[in-house]
């Protein structure tokens, strides 16, 4: 089966690992343990084709963190995650996308932007604002 590699990037504590855990195991853990890095593998079917999906759940990034080469080389797509309860994490998404573009040298990079923590009442990023990010 063909493999596809996806990197999950975002600021610290935005819910990257929770999103991955929900996708892989269909479970949510409300405990927080900072992730250093973890890789998951899952077989998926998409448009009648079978794939081995490798997901790299990364440690939280900040604006000064260099982009690790393993998150750029051989990656087929990115999920850039922010917390709707954190305006700073939302602004970090653009910085991360710019880092990916700088590192890869191309602008046509498959990216999905995901707002996490929608169950929280404290919203700092409006749905209107998030739709205009990139």
TrEMBL record:
Keywords: GTP-binding, Nucleotide-binding. SMART domains: RAB (SM00175), RAS (SM00173), RHO (SM00174). It is a lipid-anchor. One of its GO terms (biological process) is signal transduction. It is found in: Cell membrane. GO terms for molecular function: GTP binding; GTPase activity. It comes from the Eukaryota. InterPro entries: P-loop_NTPase (IPR027417), Small_GTP-bd (IPR005225), Small_GTPase (IPR001806), Small_GTPase_Ras-type (IPR020849). The keyword Cytoplasm does not apply. Signal peptide: none annotated. It holds the Pfam family Ras. This is Rheb. It comes from Collybiopsis confluens.
């Amino acid at each position: 089966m063909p493999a596809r590699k996806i990197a999950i990037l975002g600021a610290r504590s935005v819910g990257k690992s929770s999103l991955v855990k929900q996708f892989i195991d269909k479970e949510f853990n409300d405990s927080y343990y900072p992730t250093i890095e973890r890789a998951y593998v899952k077989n998926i079917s998409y448009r009648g084709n079978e794939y081995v999906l490798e997901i790299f759940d990364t440690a939280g990034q900040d604006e000064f963190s260099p982009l690790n080469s393993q998150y750029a080389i051989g990656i087929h797509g990115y999920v850039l995650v922010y917390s709707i309860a954190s305006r700073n994490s939302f602004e970090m998404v653009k910085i991360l996308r710019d880092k990916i573009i700088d590192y890869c040298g191309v602008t046509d990079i498959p990216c999905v932007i995901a707002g996490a923590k929608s169950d929280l009442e404290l919203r700092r990023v409006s749905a209107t604002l998030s739709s205009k990010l990139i």
